[in-house]
Amino acid sequence: MAEPKGNELMDKIVSLCKRRGFIFQSSEIYGGINGFWDYGPLGAELKRNVKELWWRRMTQQRDDIVGLEATIIMHPQIWKASGHVDTFNDPMLDCKTCQGRFRADQIDEIPCPLKPSNSVSQCTGAKTPVRNFNLMFKTNVGPIESADNLAYLRPETAQAIFVQFKNVLETSRQKVPFGIAQVGKAFRNEVTPRNYTFRSREFEQMELEFFIRPDEAVEAIGGIVASGSQPSTLNPQPNWGWEAWHKYWVEARIRFYENIGLPRATLEEYWQKPEELAHYAKACVDILFKFPFGTQELEGIAARSDFDLSQHQRFSGKSMGVFDEELKAAWAKLDETKKTELSQRYFEARFKYLTKMGEPADKAEKQAREDVAGLAKGNYIPHVIEPSAGVDRLILALICNAYAEDQAPDEKGKLESRVVMRFHPRIAPIKVAVFPLLKNRPELLNKAKEVRDLLRPHMTVFYDEAGAIGRRYRRQDEAGTPFGVTIDFDTLGEKPELLNTVTLRDRDSMKQDRIKIDELVPLLLEKIR
What we know:
- The chain has a seven-stranded mixed beta sheet with strand order 3-9-10-16-13-12-11, sandwiched between helices. A five-stranded mixed beta sheet has the order 20-19-21-22-23, with helices on both faces. A three-stranded antiparallel beta sheet has the order 5-4-6.
- It is built from 16 helices and 23 strands.
- The chain has three domains: 1-75 and 154-321 and 381-420, Bira Bifunctional Protein, Domain 2 (BirA Bifunctional Protein, domain 2, 2-Layer Sandwich), CATH 3.30.930; 332-379; 430-528, 3-Layer(aba) Sandwich (Rossmann fold).
- The chain has helices at 6-20, 41-60, 76-82, 84-87, 158-163, 165-172, 215-222, 242-259, 307-316, 325-332, 336-356, 361-376, 391-402, 442-455, 469-479, 520-528; strands spanning 23-25, 37-39, 65-67, 89-94, 101-103, 131-134, 138-140, 150-152, 178-187, 202-212, 267-271, 283-291, 294-303, 322-323, 379-380, 383-390, 403-409, 415-421, 432-436, 461-463, 483-487, 501-506, 512-516.
- The longest helix is centred in the middle third of the chain and has 21 residues, at 336-356.
């Protein structure tokens, strides 16, 4: 079949998401609320599967990453320290022609609502001057609305990890390098939410802050810092500096996407140019997905230096440094030339950070000298690599990637159009559907329910006895269910040699195989894991 164009494809995907219960407009019966979305039965299962896989890979299958679940509302000084209060803004303007409000950096992409739908003209009406619009949602803590009680809904989950860094470090028996992972809600008051669920005002993030030694400490201990230009490896080494760790996490994240069904060919790596980087970042790679509406970011992997912990140390007055016994011992064995070299590099980095944050030069120099003295004693503020993924964007990418149309035979063998969601079995909302061939034969229903109950402890099962078997297959194809089990009269022994066997149907190939019931669980578990 001919591939649908981008807008046409998105229209079909949005329609299927509503029809099959993946995604609904929030508050729909009241006209909806822009930038907010609800996940229906299938969408909730899909989202849960993705988050649980991420969590399992990040924490439960590793020794060097632990988890955190922090509150959505935190002390407002956190957002002052992180820079969100002063700099977390989008440029905004109003169109005097259509009275619409738009992001200034996207105005050329947005058609004016007063223009005909077939017009190539964009929003060309008279505009107000550009002004900054802070994206954080404000609220008040306590019964009195006042500046003293002002708080914010978190715009990201990362800052909670930084402010709880020392507590996690001290209670988890970890040591640098190690990571803290969190999955949770975040809120951004987007000027123009768009592209379905891609840019929303309420969303979820899966974020990891992976804390590493500064390169000067790595070199003091190991004699050399592994270059980021060395061949990629997923086997961390003691002499890895920030470049090697950054490259490691870029590759690890792409492999995760491949593992849940997004082929590498659907992804792009965008290495931000120096002028695009945040002032504290040494490097940042955006992993992009080719959506029908354009290639857009799924995840950013940033090398954030020691900025975040340093900021919270400055604002809170609490130490965010660690003591590294291995560094202290190694430093004592260095010759004076190497000590001088590493001390100077560390001083320059700390001095640059402090002056950029507005500290007077003399005060910054004094603090940087103290930091160098601390390094010689085994103390430093860890640097961090941050892989930060948007759950909702990923769900949309998986839905877009899974959507397919092909031809399938009906009950009479005539080909008809079929919509099928080709989710990877690992993330499919329903793993297997169970069908009795006919619903008016109690013996078939009873056997089918036995099979359903056999499978349920191990996977998500959907039982369906209503309608022609072909129609039931089509419904599950649209739900993305990878396997269907049909109980027929041969299952009951009409052919003695087929007693207690079922047909196992594959969603993608539509091939059906005869399988013994007692082999179903191990066979399906092998396919969905």
